[in-house]
Amino acid sequence: xxxxxxxxxxxxxxxxxxxxxxxxxxxxxxxxxxxxxxxxxxxxxxxxxxxxxxxxxxxxxxxxxxxxxxxxxxxxxxxxxxxxxxxxxxxxxxxxxxxxxxxxxxxxxxxxxxxxxxxxxxxxxxxxxxxxxxxxxxxxxxxxxxxxxxxxxxxxxxxxxxxxxxxxxxxxxxxxxxxxxxxxxxxxxxxxxxxxxxxxxxxxxxxxxxxxxxxxxxxxxxxxxxxxxxxxxxxxxxxxxxxxxxxxxxxxxxxxxxxxxxxxxxxxxxxxxxxxxxxxxxxxxxxxxxxxxxxxxxxxxxxxxxxxxxxxxxxxxxxxxxxxxxxxxxxxxxxxxxxxxxxxxxxxxxxxxxxxxxxxxxxxxxxxxxxxxxxxxxxxxxxxxxxxxxxxxxxxxxxxxxxxxxxxx
Length: 409
Ligand code: NAP
What we know:
Number of helices: 10
Oligomer: single chain
Bound molecules: NADP nicotinamide-adenine-dinucleotide phosphate
CATH topology of the largest domain: Rossmann fold
CATH superfamily of the largest domain: Nucleotide-binding domain of ferredoxin-NADP reductase (FNR) module
Helix content: 10-25%
Structural class: alpha/beta
CATH class of the largest domain: Alpha Beta
Number of domains: 3
Order of helices and strands: EHEEEHHEEEEEHEEHEHEHHEHHE
CATH architecture of the largest domain: 3-Layer(aba) Sandwich
Distance between the termini: 60 Å
Shape: globular
């Protein structure tokens, strides 16, 4: 007599509906279109998902990284997942199942995902972040304490510094963390708007020290990536806010892109435009420590790109920081009469200083336009090669040790 066919198990990829902020990042990232959503939940089609992990690191909340062992014949359908308010617990498995379990994730795909250029770890000395204190189901209503234009009155870009007050709510934030803001109303298909993520621009002690508040750096979106007129829903909503308005906020998010806390650590910051938000937060935290008399041996080096000085957020305060506190190099791409310069061009000019910093106890942060990533990595490689440093092994070590952080869009 034939033995009964063994139960075939799979490792099913699922999204936690309690933590997910419906930002659509996973659906946009998935290379095989395995992720979809309705008005309620984001879900994974088990018959399409190949476990490539491409969606895992871009997810701002970690809600994407959930797995259940299930008999293939009993895998959760998307209809099951659409109905959930919370993830089901891991069910008990048939006694003979473990021996017949299939490898759920293709190992080649998994190792490719692990080679992402950004760190999977926080710096060893980073403070412990608080995460997801306010969720999609129970957001926080913050009050606008101020909304100030950062760019010059005649500048093309309207970049704003928006201060949110959390009142009596416990909402601790660390430099490098993000919060999500949900614009009110519905999109064209009648669904509520999805939350949008913004990096905190203020240090952990608050925009105004001792107050329970934080700031965001927001650029009013008036054109799409191709330069065609387009009105950014969330950015226009935020840029138009008045003092006293309330805003629906969730978070905090982010447990990797955090700054080191040990005083000897150097920080190399490379950013464009509003990608300066976390750099301002880190710089201001160090500035306050220094002003309080804390001994800080670590150095700060900043490469900051914008079209013109008038378009550079925080240009005035930045110019006032003494060079012995922060070594700043600006790159302007559209100053009439001057050749176009990008941050990577300026890094090449200062290759020796960049390499010297990289050889020490340094943590690298890259934030801003997606397009800058390749050029910046190339400039780092060139700086290392000129200094006789093996870039691939330094880069690998930096990534493994939580010293290399990239946030580009
Ligand atoms: P932007 O004004 O469009 O650009 C800033 C500078 O970067 C300009 O000088 C631009 O030059 C230059 N640039 C363009 N392509 C480049 C490339 N390939 N390499 C190096 N530099 C390049 O910047 P933005 O609109 O503020 O965009 C900033 C980005 O940061 C956005 O994608 C935003 O989503 C992201 N971000 C924002 C936050 C936040 O909390 N607000 C946080 C993290 C990231 P040209 O235009 O002259 O070519």
